[in-house]
UniProtKB/TrEMBL annotation, chain A:
Source organism phylogeny: Eukaryota, Metazoa, Chordata, Craniata, Vertebrata
Keywords from the UniProt entry: Signal
Protein name per UniProt: Uncharacterized protein
GO term, biological process aspect, one: attachment of GPI anchor to protein
Biased segments, Low complexity type: 43-57, 69-84
Cleaved signal peptide residues: 1-26
Domain of life the protein comes from: Eukaryota
Keyword Signal: yes
Organism: Mola mola
TrEMBL record, chain B:
Location (main, coarse): endoplasmic reticulum
Entry's localization field: Endoplasmic reticulum membrane
Keywords from the UniProt entry: Endoplasmic reticulum, Glycoprotein, GPI-anchor biosynthesis, Membrane, Transmembrane, Transmembrane helix
Gene Ontology cellular component list: GPI-anchor transamidase complex
Organism: Mola mola (Ocean sunfish)
Pathway: Glycolipid biosynthesis; glycosylphosphatidylinositol-anchor biosynthesis
TM annotation in the entry: 16-34, 516-538
Membrane topology of this protein: Multi-pass membrane protein
InterPro entries from the UniProt entry: PtdIno-glycan_biosynth_class_S
Protein name per Swiss-Prot or TrEMBL: Uncharacterized protein
Family designation: Belongs to the PIGS family.
One example of a Gene Ontology biological process annotation: GPI anchor biosynthetic process
Amino acid sequence: MAAHRCSYIAVLLSFCGLSLFIVAGSQKTTLPVGEHAAANGNPQTGTETAEQTTEPPAVEEELWEATEVEGATPDDAATDTPDTSTQESVVLSPVAQPKDDFQEELVIRPLPSGDIYASFQFRTLWETDFRVSHYRLFPKSLGQVISKFSVRELHISFTQGYWRTMQWGQPFQSSPPGAELWVWFQDSVTDVDSTWKELTNVLSGIFCASLNFIDSTNTVQPSASFKPLGIGNVTDHRFLRYATLPREIVCTENLTPWKKLLPCGSKAGLAVLLKSEKLFYSSFHSQAVHIRPVCRDQDCKTTSWELRQTLNVVFDLHTCAQGKREWSLFKMFSRTLTEACPLASSSKIYIDITDNPQGEQFELSPATSLLSQAVVLGDRRTFSVYDLTQRITFGTVHSLNLLIRWKSSEGHTLRPLLHAERYVAGYGLHVGEIHTVMYNNHPYRSFPVMLLELVPWYLRLYIHTLTVTSKGKENTPSYIHYQPSKDRVRPHLLEMLVQLPPNSVTEVTMQFERALLKWTEYTPDPNHGFYVGSSVISSLVPSIVAMDTNITLEQPLFSSFFPCKEESSFFVRVYTEPLLVNLPTPDFSMPYNVICLTCTVVAVGYGSLYNLLTRSFQIEEPSPGLAKRIANIIRKMRGVPPL
Amino acid sequence: SVIKITLLIYRRRGQFAALSIAAMVIIVGVPLWWRTTETYRAWLPVSQIKELDNLQLQLSVDVEVVLARGTVTPEQQKKVPLTQTQDEQQANTALRYRYEMRYRTATIMEEDALNKPTAAEADLSLHMLSESPCGSLVVYVIPESSSLLLEDMDVYIGQRRTALLRIGAQVRVGRTLEQLLAHLKPRIKQVLQVMSFSHTEITAALSDRVRLTPGNKGSIADSMRAFKSSPGWSMFRLMLHWDIEGAVETYIQPLLTKLAPLANFSIDSQILYYAMLGVNPRFDSSRNAYTLNIDSLAHVINPVEARLGSNAASSNPVLNFLLYVPDAHHSPLHIQDYKKQEVLSNAFHSPRWGGIMIYNVNDFYGPEAAFPVDININMAKVMGVFLAQLRLLLGVQSSTPPPGFLVAPCSSPGIADWELDRLMWSRSVENIATATTTITSLAQLLDQIGNIVINDNIAQQVSSTVMSLQLAVAELEAGNLGFALQYSKEAISASERAFFDPSLLHLLYFPDDQKFAIYIPLFLPMCVPILLSLLKILSEVRQRRREKQAKKD
């Protein structure tokens, strides 16, 4: 029953308030694994052809031969296997099922700004310890990565666009623009750095992303900001690596391998909606993969692996509905739903109708009587639920096209309790100042936040200029972890625990100097500027309603990602904007110009010296002037000697 | 005249200055420039590589011929044991085969073993007596009257490295030992062709090195099918609802354990749902089944390959074995060969890629079937096909034995010792050939392009390749097959590491015109005055000499 006391235990562990974050204690809140023995794969007819074409297998000459089996069949094979004598019999008794389970879920939330937020979650649970290498629902490529690199937890996200917390509120999973990767390794890994290097290369191959650009200059080991989200008591941050690539462009080539990891691919279930031409025609797109160990049951003696694939997308109402305030699955994704993924034990669509209790804001069709309440991000929300495993959901037309029609156009503005901004101040190309502004909009509660700044080495931070002010007064951080940079080796890492007073704005400023790079270190478009990754703000924000800490309760997937330890607060991670900083950029023809100029100078100096040394000088009598010459000619004619 | 003398002195001094500056440029400047701009190139054993490139290979096999009681007369017996060596120089290649035949009479225990009722039992008990080393063979010559073999069989090839050979009638064989041996030799040769390497196989292994005569194209097709040798292999398979752990343990693992000296194998499996064949099977109303034509099999793999993804954890080549369960709309599905006949195994394989087997579960797709249905896949059947495909893909060739030969059926590991030996012979030769090619082309490349930096680690890899190659060749010559394979594997991995080292690329593309664009602004203004003054000095010297000549005249 240890797992039940999930309440106030871990709150006030005093070590600088560090453990206010997700305490990686032994108890752990996760969904109990449902005993779903359904989903025996009976392949359904996919009506579409495979979208991806890859290169043909490397066969120089295509020699296709029918295999003839003659003497090669082991003759004592049949006797070795007792259970195969009954060929192809329908076995209704429970066979030793591989214990894995797949769930899919789509949450749609009409945002106060009038945009639509759609969040897909696909979760595969597998009761294994990766000693076997036979995969069913879990993708083999990721399983191999976990077992080969001894990964304990892996979180990777690719994001295009910036999540506007002020207008949209909190997302279910936040992610910074570009690519983000953080990995906890098992404590059996001896050389974490080389494993990390290899892992990033492999992942960049799996996801078709430029993760191979992750090296020591953009990797850090945060001491407190990124605690493991799964179970496990190793919190030694030597085994943690965190890196972001703010410049990474996310596009179709990243989506296709991501979709391939799903058991049903994009052939059935909710993944049918993931058409790239629509998904990338949006204001915000973020796809992520989270792998972590979770408790298998309440006692938490054994662990399973959880693979969560999430995809968050925000559709701009005005671009996809041509100005009409009307929205449907077909308009957004250009597809409707016809079935759930047959392998999924649960397949649901949630529509957030909290702001619309009596239907005065918008109208939802087809209507559903199924309602569900969930506490998510410190708020109790009401959802209309569509269960895709029920045939009745699809109605008589065998297809589900959800439609929301707005009645009133005013949306109430929303004030998220915590949000943050960042910008660069200063002029000229020598020094500058980074401002990080954090807003606590809670009317009467103050709470601590952990701020992580990851600044590349070519911005040389003056750490003595660090000031933290809130409400005009100096605010002393209770914990500072600073790791200075080394040129071309590692970046700056600054972690601070700052208490945000109620209803306040806290500003963190820091001056920096721009370094002059070597001419080969500039990017191909240096005048575009250099990106500095988002700063990360992790916090336990006081909740308005009591959070669910009861893990035995069946929760929807979107509310069960961050484990919740206490009722009074909820975990939030906020990313600021990435910065774009101009560095002093030389004229790139300069090296050649310099070579030419120096060579000319050397040549001129050398030439005159050479002339001085080798020429012989002699005094020449000055030639007589013109008058004298004429006079001489006259004197010659007269027969008088010349002058 | 004083002015003239000083003028002369001045001119003399100028000449000296010009000469000394030219000397400085040549003695100090040029070497300095040379040293500072040269690329580091470590020493490579080029001559040894060239020597290896000739590929003088000699393969030696130890053959022990044991004469059982009743095959030799007492006076013949006096002359044994004796050793004969037979060398064969193959025409138009640098290959030499050496067979070392050692004749001896059977020991008492061997005689007992040979008196067992059946050949299989005799084979087993002979194996118990002594285990012959890898690559060698033992041929037991048994009398004509022996009951071990059936009437029309002359040779029995066992599961290990032994063969039983029935001798002809004494009358035909002749009286003296020489006559006996002369009678035995061609027959032993025949046995060797089956159990040890054959010339076609070795030349196939050397296919990219040795020019082939048009006659043996068929064997090339065989070798194409076989995977190129590499130090590690991964395999994976995908299936429906199946006991893959048990099946791998029972059927595949014994074979892989046996093949462990060749390569490290690892097995993974994944079930893929909604997998697609790239082609639409045609409905054959006469059979009430869907058929896939053998021509269209080539298009099957690509869509599946897209779902398979690459092997994330290693860069070793992958053999794919796919079990495809067709969906209800295309079931049952059969493969048709060129003669429009159904292929019995319903499976096909693609060289160096893997195999696909189609597994029909048609009985469950009835109209009243209640889904989901549990289907147990008959793993014995599936694994039988996959094992056969694996043998083919690895290059274990089951060539049809000549008439009169009886080959023992496969034992549980799925591969006989002598088959493994055959594989090892051709693999070692192939490894040696590949490593030699790699290292030779690397040496040529480095020789051609002067810009490439050769670091010490590359030089070290190259010399370790050369050393391993030399050792492998020597071991082949000595007949130690196991070591030869070991060294050849080392050679191949070292040569690949050297060839694909990224440091070779650093300065590869530094164009010459850019170099000149940088040098000319410095060199032109510096060298022109020196050259001019040198020319002037030269012409003056010549003029003075001419004047002197004129004066003499």
